[in-house]
């Protein structure tokens, strides 16, 4: 298993991108009158005009991490993941998340599952300072075979304060903020490696099991809003599904990662177990870096004030492309 490990495990990133492009090509209608669409589809979230404000909507789910929760009968943290995957997509445009709705689809209801999911959602809401204002639970026996958790989040910001990435300039530095681990993407490949080469209760050198590492909740980067109010930030990126490919959403610049953050042991184990190449690892996982700021170098100290574990990881270049330690990745 090397370059196509994720595809062989069941997820084809290139096909997914092409399929999404086909879907978006059909979404041509735009509302007329007040409160029209104020962005194009394709960034981390879409927003509509609301006077001097923009209202933004993001939607995401926990994905096949739910299968790990099912196997371990521990659903206590997946609610945090669900909120994190949404609010982090809002933070990248300096949008403040204010309200959230969840959607749970299941083949059979369980009070224990629902209570644990509720605790995680509540904790995520507290970390992101938002209100959960409603949701939907659907029992879909015959359509789903387990439990799926997703949600949508509403964010708001004054239009003039939105950060789209348009101000990114060659020479800007890139500052990486560590992830808490695998977060909530790439789990199809991670689970495949565990099925073939290990087990959820296998202990790594740290003493933690593979199962506990996979269930570690996604980090919520709520401090972003304070940083953007104190220093000039040109662009930001949430490193989620697709790994470093997410940077392509910010424009046709080059992104040279000369000093990447060290990946946590879960990533090293996956790469070694499956003999997966470094480019594919960085194309699939966050590899220890869950969030990236792009800004003039003098803004680094402001970031360090809120994220002591932040590190300058690279530089924006003229020529398009993503490189790692001097070698082209994509």
UniProtKB/TrEMBL annotation:
It catalyses: 2-formamido-N(1)-(5-O-phospho-beta-D-ribosyl)acetamidine + ATP = 5-amino-1-(5-phospho-beta-D-ribosyl)imidazole + ADP + phosphate + H(+). It is found in: Cytoplasm. Keywords: ATP-binding, Cytoplasm, Ligase, Nucleotide-binding, Purine biosynthesis. Belongs to the AIR synthase family. Its main location: cytoplasm. It holds the Pfam family AIRS. InterPro entries: PurM-like_C_dom, PurM-like_C_sf, PurM-like_N, PurM-like_N_sf, PurM_cligase. It comes from Methanospirillum stamsii. This is Phosphoribosylformylglycinamidine cyclo-ligase. Residues 170-325 form the PurM-like C-terminal domain.
